[in-house]
What does this fold into?
Amino acid sequence: VTNTTRDRIAAAFDNELAAAPVPPALRSLAVRAAVQSRRQDGGHPRLLAALAAVIAIALLATLVVGSHLLNQTRVPAHSPLPPAPRVGAAVAYDQARATMVLFGGSTGRGNESVTVNETWTWDGNYWTQQHPRTSPPRSRDGVMAYDQARHNVVLFLRSAPNDTWTWNGSTWQLKHPVHVPPLGYAWQGPVLQFDPITRAVLLYGFNTTNQPQTWSWNGSDWTQLQPATSPNTMAVMAFDGHQVLLLAQTPGQIGGRYFTQTWAWDGSSWNLLHPRVNLPLMGWASTAYDTARGQLVLLAGDTWTWDGSNWARQHPTAWPATVGYMVYMESRHEVVTWADVSTITDGEMYGWDGSNWKLLQPGPRPETTNGKGGYAGPMSPDQAAAIVRATVTNTHPVLLPTSFPGAPYDVRMVHADADGFDITYEGDLRDKSISFGVVVANPPPGPSNASETWVKFRNAVALKGHTNGYADYFVYDPTSPLSQRWLMWIEPGTMVNPMAKAQGVPYFLSTDGLTDAEFWQVANSLR
Amino acid sequence: MDEAGLVQAARSGDELAFDSLVGPLIDPAFKLAVVFLRDPDEARDAVQEATLKAWRSLDRLRNDAAARAWFLTIVANQCRSMRRSRWWSVVRLESITQPDRGNAERELQLDLDRELGKLPVADRAVLFLHFYLDLPLSDVGRILKISPQAAKSRVHRAVRKLRLGMVEVAK
It folds into this structure.
């Protein structure tokens, strides 16, 4: 192969690729979606892929969804209409002035996206755009908390130069602390809450070498605290009426699964709590303490409440489409959530009445149901099955699980077209999930002790060189009863696969949090 | 921080290190995905999913292993998975057929462009990795799950096909 040939082939690729330039935001979208997905070792292939897709779609939606939804006209200074939805704003409830304070964020989509340094307040009825004498710089990565000891709102900018500002109800003041928490990227999540035990504002985050740090703000300076124990993963900070909590993902699998642990701050250290029910892994999440009902409300797709010692999943009949900016409004005696922290497609406001969400202010709502991108739940397995059987018309047979072990399951998302489908079922407490569909998956290899066996299963069509009637069964960690596991086989049917001995439909079943017996209960219930 | 340090840091959860490690590879990864999938939208999806899988499988990246080959291997796997997916390929079958540019385009480079588009994906991938990304055959083999010797013979076979194709067009 001569250099001329090499150069010409490279030039031919250049010509071909010129028609498909690298999307400018791909790096940040891909990396950000990945690191926000929670890291796993040989993790659940379908569930995480779906999670990544959801995050990516949500992020992309900020770039591609119709601008007519998003370009709102400027709101008068004192109006019941909210400002334009924005991504990455900071929010807190200002107790001294009984208003929700909203600062910064990015509005608009794609090239029209603008990061702002606007300050908005909402008193429970009216929105007001404030025009302070001084203002923090445009930012979409601030975190905010009300400082009960000094009766102002503290804003910490999560990326360099890590400025600290305070809001007194009429203007912002830049603080000049001697010490500044040297925190890394905003997406590593520094989080902020007032700690009633030490009467200081507590900050948790990671420095640039990824060490977890806890800092305390006394109104004039930051002090790094030295807790004896601490989570070492990204966390959401919350206040439960008595103490500050950190909701942090497990650093690794515990009992065969990843979940979110609950840590409490006792004034000097983070202590791991052991509630009866652990939260599942969470993507975006917002929290607020519901003073009227004495419980912490957590919105993370599902709604959870914390009564001081245990988590309970709530089953509202209506709910916000996304995870919004959330505070408790004393004037309304309820927790409210507005818009979406991660996209600008949602402009609705909901209030929590202790058992249900009710719409307080209409606004743009993201499309959650369509036949192409998927059907968003939650819905029952029967409803999901009806969608699949009505949609998948080119492929036979269409199999679906008919027996679900343990608690009731629901379906968050169905992808289906005429040729195939993919469903994820989740247990009521989100500690079990089942993914099933017509898809040739490419699951990642497991750890060194993973088990892969060929098991007799149905009338599976064999790949060429193999024996009919067997399926590929994979257990990531055979020593863990609840290990992730999957089964892949070709069901005799309509599809043509040149690698197979005969026509057949490739099916893939994977579970998370199910025992071996439960797994086979599902597998053997396919009809 | 060197690559081994970045790997170590990323493995411990350092997202900045992960961005430093994988971020610069997104560009070649996307191009590789386009070569595999011939569809920029699908290529974008493949890179995003591959990045997610890379984040999750950092523990399987040895400190001394080349991150470039490791990541491109994941991208190639993802692309293969997407291509193998029956209902995906049904939807995309038409879109993967390159349009004929017509008899007027006789210049050699244009012929080469066209013939390159006609090559099977496996041949396109090996040419892209070796000639476009300048990867050694050992890395090409690793990414495509074939031996370096097989990679070498596939390169030669693909080049031969290109030349044959161009001769046929010229006739």
